[in-house]
Amino acid sequence: MFDRRLVQYFDWGLLGLTFLIAAFGLATLYSAVHGDPAPPHRSLFVKQMIWYGGGLSVMTAIFLFSYKFFDRWAYVFYFFCIALLVWVLLFGKYVSGARRWIDFGPVSLQPSELIKIGVIIVLARFYSRFATTRGFTLRELVTPLLLVMLPFFLIVKQPDLGTALLVLLIAGTMTAYVKIERRSLIYLIAAGAVAVPLVWSYLKGYQKQRILTFLDPDRDPLGAGYHIIQSKIAIGSGMLTGKGFRQGTQNALSFLPEQHTDFIFSVFSEEWGFLGAMAMLVVFLVMILWGLNIAYNCRDQFGAILCVGVTAMIFWQVFINIGMVMGLMPVVGVPLPFVSYGGSSILTIMVCVGILLNVSMRRFLFE
Amino acid sequence: MNRYLQNADGDWFKRRLSGVIFCAVVAFVVLMVRVFYLQVMQGEELRRLSDNNCIRLQGIDAPRGLIFDRNGKRLVDNRPAFDVGVIVKDARPLEQTLARLAGYLDLDEAELRQRLAHRNGEADYKPVIIERDISRDTLAVLEAHKFDLPGVVVNVVPRRNYIYETSAAHLLGYLGEVSGTELQKELFPGARAGDFIGKSGVEKAFEKYLKGERGGRQVEVNANGQVVRVLKTVEATPGKNIFLTIDKELQRKAETLLEGIAGAVVAMDPSTGEVLAIASSPTFDQNDFVSGLSNEVWDGIRSNPFRPLENKAIQGNYPPASTYKIITAIAGLEEGVIDENTTFTCPGHYRMGNRTFRCWKRGGHGRVNVVEAIEKSCDVFFYQVGQKLGVDRLAWYAKACGLGVPAGIDIAHEAAGLVPTADWKKQRTGVSWQAGETLSVAIGQGYNLTTPLQMLGLTAAVGNGGTRLRPLILKSLQNPNGETLFSCLPEEIGQLPVSPKTLDIVRRGLWRVVNQKTGTAWVAHTAGIDICGKTGTAQVFSRKNNETLFAKDRPAFLNSHAWFVAYAPAVNPRIAVAVIVEHGEHGSNAASPIARELVKTYLRSPLSQTVADGAVDAPPAAEFQMPQG
Hints:
The complex is a heterodimer of chains A (367) and B (629). Chain A is mainly α and 367 residues long. Chain A is built from 14 helices and 3 strands.
């Protein structure tokens, strides 16, 4: 039955933050796609609005029911996502060398986005049952490891290295949060230190080249290296106050690749300058701290771990994407939450917001 | 509710959370410092670079691999060419610049504007090529006025150069701009709009070896679009060099011999299958294709009734005519319907039912055995062999000799020819096979169709003792630094369906064709070289029984095609040749002298191995009587 306190405790602050970032994102996308000389990109702004509409509905649907629902259905949802990943490998739409999309007529979905949520929920369920102050031992970590590696390899196979790494990072953050027992941690680090050179020696020449280029874009001055230089020029040329809305020149001449998806922060920073970029970073940081605060106030382990996982996902995407376009990180295709164009990305991020709202508004239930 | 609160107390989780918060804040501080560094500390420098889009990429075209003949003579290379492009963004004021440029290039301004409009969605800072391959004089003019022409760039690009114009044009092929559909289907990985790719011949067949890998450089330009400094360079990788099996001298000789006639010549080393020459006439100049064909040249090529673009040696489907008698003889001997001593009498015609089939020699050949029948190309003898065999047995032998399927050369669009059978005709026309048609097939007429290359393969196999080899065109492949990547080895594709005895009989007949005064190709006989061969005269229209139209009254396009296939020397042959002369009328005098000259050229060339010294004592000079064949 409906509890009056649900309204009373509703997290209006988080919802406000979400709308603020979404507004940032839509404005930047508008500028990015309208500077593009290729007409087909122009419809992307409208499409993104529609995705946001869908995202809001999904978000609402998610905070209406108690998050215990996720705990109960964790494995079902997880394996549903895994089935989608297998499906996409077999029958997915082939776009520029990768199978990432399931085509549903006018829209296509990326199951690799959905599995991030799947992994977060299933790990939250597992860890909340077995966490102790001692921390997890190696043997206890076998099950979560399998739960993470299965989607990891399916995503690597597509191939979508960025998303695969993201799954690892999210899972890693959640595991670190629930604590790994000390000896086990030392073993893990030692095993990693041995494995890396061993695997490296088994790689073929061109595979090594690809990894080196990934780590150091300058090795590919006509491809990734060039994009990073152009991105840095775009960001830096914004200077203190920026060139003004829709005044970005790097973007207008399509110097930037993928300016509406992965490189959208460059467009934003060129137009809004240091002040704008700082504002965006601050809003993102506030949102992340907000998410962690919800975890802090949550009275049960599942909810707390769930919120940490969801917040970790937002954090890593922001950190990797913005770090990448500023030349601090390898070049990987990780979208900037709320801002980059992409239906699956928007839906996933709105699911995350829905989960945070859900946990936040039910914090009284255990009083 | 309690099951959510097991194992640990809430405070413990809260304490761990502070570690997470700390990490997140540190990470954001790093990002903020970086934003500060780029936008505030480096801001002015980066703003300057952004103002003119100063950092640009320039492509470096990879030189295509060179093509050599078997002796290392260069056939195709690259020369530097100058392409003029306009960078719209830098060409300010655009109107004025275009007007001036049109003047210097001697182009209509409207035309120039149209070419500029052709840049389908390319960005303003990328050069649009306006004119390819300008002359050095024009280049000098542009250089002298380069300060009046902002945004006009001249790119030095490697351009394909066919050293011997029109020579081996069909074999080497030509380049053309990659088409939109080819790009869309990603048929040529790494290719971009405006790139040239092999469109025919060797250029197409070995595209993957010949094409190099494009490089590029990151450059900084000033406000006028001129390069201030090069930041980074990735060198282009040149394509691999190809050595063909062709002998340039022989190829040139073949082309000289074909001048003024429509036809084809193809020569092969019978012991390896290496193609030594492959010429088709009339030909075309591949250099015309390199910079884009003008309409007049293209119309000229297309309206030529002798099909200059067709490589007649591998694409021409001709009735094999009397050259087919090699197969009829083999089939007859192997099937036992005749033996070496079987004779038939030729009165000049053969009557079957109520039809009369004529021999080419009205007076007849008298009593002939199989060797003499080959020598004199007696139709009546082979009518009877064919009649005893039936069409389907003949067809089996023809297919076993390599007819009816492409010979397997590495060049595209090879014709398959046609080996008729009773079933084939029934299926195709709905009419049953007529016994008389077998007789036409037995002398290589009727529905039979072959390419010169297929007949060459048969001849070479007869010459080398029965081994059918795949015709090779690629001898070896080298890296630009001269390191050999691989060499092609002879590739057996089958054996002729013959016993050594049968082969010996056929070869004796072929020897007599050229080396007996009564042979049909006595005209081709050469002092010191034992050429063995077979003539053929392929009718292009059917001659009725009471045909009275004589050659002199007939229009040229109704004249028969002349064939000659040969190998030499008779023992351990080193060259096999097939010649077809369209509407040349008779194999003996139109085609066989061409083969003779080629054999002489090749065997006496210092580059080919030494000629056997035994046979230099000169027999009497050839009497130029004109036997029919």
